[in-house]
Fold these 4 entries.
Entry 1:
Amino acid sequence: MKQLSSEELLTKIEKAHLVGRGGSGYSTATKWKEMFAKHHDSIYMAVNGSEGEPGTLKDGYILKNCLPDLLYGISQAYVIFPQTKSIYLYLRKDYFETYKDAIENELKNSVPTLPLLMFKEPGGYLCGENTVLVNAIEQKRLEPRRKPPYISEKGLFDKPTIVNNLETFYQIGKIAKDEYRDTRLYSITGAITNPGVYEEANTITVFELLAKTNNVLGDTMFVQLGGGASGIYLTKEELAQTPANRGTGALIIYDSTTCSFLSLLTEKLQFLIGENCGKCTPCREGLYRMHEMVTKGQWNETLAKDIAETLAKTSFCGLGVGAGNAFVSLFTKKDQLWKK
């Protein structure tokens, strides 16, 4: 296969309308063309395989089943940015331990000149945030950085840095080989019969995706779309008109007869409090206060909604913003999700 030039690869990525698969949905071509146009002498790159969003399994699926395709996609990114000093393959702890040897072998056999360094993520959910990733590699405190400056200007070791989700690089490899068909990977978990990772159209609705994977929902079931920490909640009636490609493409299915409102809320709060860096007041105090209301039997829905809205509007990083949006969705639809 003829190796494409930097310009040809960027044009292909732009024509494919590829967006990041880590949750933000930002145009990959726009992000990369802005970096390319600045002609930096040296940059860094990071492949974000943190995958800390609950219910998301796609990056692990790629590492297990599509490793050559992933490394090919990373190599094509290196063609676009040959001034890259190092490419960090930033992996969740269990992924690092499980796939380290396979990655080293594949790297040696297929792309030995690729300046790829594997890095084991030191923390949890928050370490998937791009600026926390930078701090982790630099062995600094695991908390988000203030922006600006953005990491595209001042990232790893004060150099311009590109960070994209692991699946994004996998899809870039498919684009380079003319195998991309506007699909993405979806993770389906929860109270269903056929959990797993499925590659389907980027435009598919939640209803269509569940039907194609033989996951039929009963009348008492509902969906959290986009991830277990930041995803919005959907009633069964909303599935047919809602695209499934939100966030990380994760769908978690719940049954209201076996999962109560308070048990679900407690589970989410415990996770988020455990992953909270404590840097900003809305996230630190807001999550604690909601958890206190639940555990002490002092539930106040009006106050909880106010806290959730504040989280969504004023949190320092995406953990609090995403959690706030998820809670606003949960509180707003509570009576529809748990029908009396």
Entry 2:
Amino acid sequence: MLYNEKNNVLNIFENQWCWYKIIDTLSIKLYNNVEIRREEFIIALLKKYSFVLFIIIIVLAFNVTLSAGQLEVNYLDVELGDSILIKTPNDKTILIDGGSKDSCNNLKNYLSKYEIKKLDYVISAVPHPNHIGGLLPILEEFKVEKVIDSGLRDKTSIYREYLDLIEQKNITYKTGRTGDKFQVGEIKFEVLHPDKHTYNLKNSSLVLLMKYSNYRFLFMGDVDSKLEEKLIQSNKNISAQILKVGNHGSNLSTSKEFLEKVSPRTAIISSGLDDNYPHAGNIRRLNQKNINIYRTNKKGTITIKTDGKSLSISTQYDSKVNTGINENTGEP
């Protein structure tokens, strides 16, 4: 076993049998079948190839360090809906929304592609069909440890089925409220909204701030500018480098004042090809602030990876992948 999950370090010498076989094979080539003691051979090998072995160990250790500390946030292409899959550095998985029922196959295929069979958290931002519809087969077919939502009750059959599945599967359920905090490994979450007051469906959305080292991600659900103003007036620190734009880029969200308060470098908009989102006014306000814009209806699934110190963005559309995009260079 070359990788020790508990300690997150390479344990190259754990499998002695494997290394003895390599040594025996090399000894034939290096010493022309001359029999020497194993200890003498190891010393000779280290002397002859010490620099090469040093480079190999450094490269392997560097790669493991990068892999072990990576947070991955995937804004999935689910047409006009929201679905965000988060993979933490310690291999925990968090799913925020699931898109609509029509797009659930996209979500299931993505989870299967990465061999994800268990979700530690499922977070439902708003009980709207294009947010929770795709969660139904996920709750049915995958192991889910905990569900968090806004607590707003809806009268649709999709929402009733959603609640029934949570009960049938005996999944831990919690309602998120302003000020609630929870942590998944090194990743910290804070609920910014809703509070105890009553709002309409969209403005009852769960608004989340996620923090990992130097980076902050803001997930706005479906809220509009009225709720944005409430967040501004709360005097909370809602700044974030990465903003998931509210309500699919509606002209009623992402006000100029809100953008000044959040000061994002990158904005993600989840919308479909055959709808009217995002609205031109929303895009104009983002451009006026020189914010990099990534849209799922143009780029497909958008993946952000960070070790907490630097960040990269890649996009995937129709199986064509563009990688290595720096957050400061904009869209490819």
Entry 3:
Amino acid sequence: MKKAFPASPATRKRINTLLYIGAVVSFAAPIVFLAIRWIARGDAADVSGYRTPADYALMITQCVLGLLAIHLPMVLGNRFRFEVPQLLYVLFVLFLYCAIFLGEVRSFYYRVPHWDVVLHSFSSMMAGFFGTMVIAIFNRDEHAATKLAPRFVGAFSFCFGFSLGALWEIYEYILDGLFGYNMQKFALPDGTILMGHAALGDTMKDLMVDALGALIAAIVGVVTIRKGKRWLMPCLTEKSTKAPSSAAEPSDPEAVSALSAAVAEEEAAPEPEPSAFAESGSRH
């Protein structure tokens, strides 16, 4: 059976490097382009209607956040001493590319029907997979998830994935209120403000999709654990600590001389003669 990804560490490293460079370029290059377009257009919106000044500000903000998020696996991996599984890293980079570059910069959220629904389900499912990985990281045991009850691991993965989706909705609400964005789609592309139940439609739909994606991740995690698969398990690493030289031998010349003299004196000391009491005892 062929493996989904090459087993060679060098090959995996090249793939990760190419994905990293491609994502960084996709996020960094549009920042300059969007800033120039924003300044040139001023307060005027595009003819298409979905690129208002607030949209330009949102796209730049998302690109900056994408540049920060792409470093999360490396930062967290160094902090908690683990390596993200190859498949999850590829899914993570693809999600950032589809959400930020295609979704925001290329306006797929407006051009492609249900693009937001697909990404929300994908993100919550991926977060659920990371929830399974968190169990192994916090317990410092690559087999921790397999030692626990699969149902408990599945429940934790579901709660982890759904919680991140709920936090994202809070993030959208805060940015919409502070900067006048339209992340929660409370307004139509032409600027019409939705009222009442319609204004809550996008947020509630996203939460329901998040719950569905997290549930799928929990089910997949339980099945993979029961079948003994390890593609959700991280590779735990340890810090390479170098023992100080003073622990091996003293670096002070005087200390070395004193230690050598003590050893020589101990070796040259005569063995104690047996006492008369010991000799008399031995005769009996």
Entry 4:
Amino acid sequence: MKTIKDLNLCDDYLFHEVMKDKRLVIGLLETVLDLKGKIQDIKYVEGEKTIKGGYTGKGIRVDVYVMDDELNVYDIEIQNGKIQVLGKRSRKYQSNMDYEFLKQGQSYDKLKKQYIIFICTSDPFGRGLYKYTFCNLCKEMTDLELGDETTKVFLNTKGYKGDVSNELKAFLRFVEQSTVTQAEGTDSDFVKALSERVEDVKRNEEIGGDYMTFEEKMIELAEIRAEEMVEERAEKLAEERAEKLAEERAEKLAEERAEKLAEERAEKLVEERAEKLAEKLLEENLNNTVRQIASNMKAAGFKTEQIAQICGLSLDEIELL
């Protein structure tokens, strides 16, 4: 388990504590969004705020949630490791943050600018940029903006190309190596201020104690979640096994039923065929017997008309005997 002195700014706990300083939040926003001197004040900063999605919607957990004096909204998130659905996750953040504002009774036209910023320790899109900025533009006319005033920014601490300020590059390097040495190696006043705050946090015994409690709680929650995942996995495997057995049993029953039906059908066809053959043989034998009787009567001198009347044969048939 890391001690608080081992943490970097990319660790949620340290980031949360450092961003309690409004001055640094403003500095970060101005650096990332190229808004130097444009953010005069922050009305409130809520770290680790849960924003509900309305009705039974799933809530989201935000690291730093900021609203400036013009009611523009900023959400800053630290993302460690690679997240496959980061784009769709940003969409969820946007919708929930809009709901948070609108549930207060505001109309759509009162929605202010919204910025969602992800600070990623792995390249979210694999293109090597320091910063990826997304706004809604018309596909057919790229100079035509939708006007929803939403911006999503993904920062890449592993970036190596793109037209960004030296201050932003220095900040991105500091995120994963939050040391005094790293800060002293840059000309960025903002990064140096961050470094001072980081060191203050790490020296604070009360915060250090809270961190230990936090880590213990996280480990406990992780263990609980691991047990839940084991149970969920076991249940899923059991369901899959039961489903497979059911399918196998169903297939076997279907085969047995099909075989039985085939046997019954074959037996019925055999009986029908036998009856037809028996009728045919009987008819053939009967015809042969009648012809033999007629032949004997003809040989005995019976008249043709008599033979025809008695045996039911035609005169031509009798003549051929």
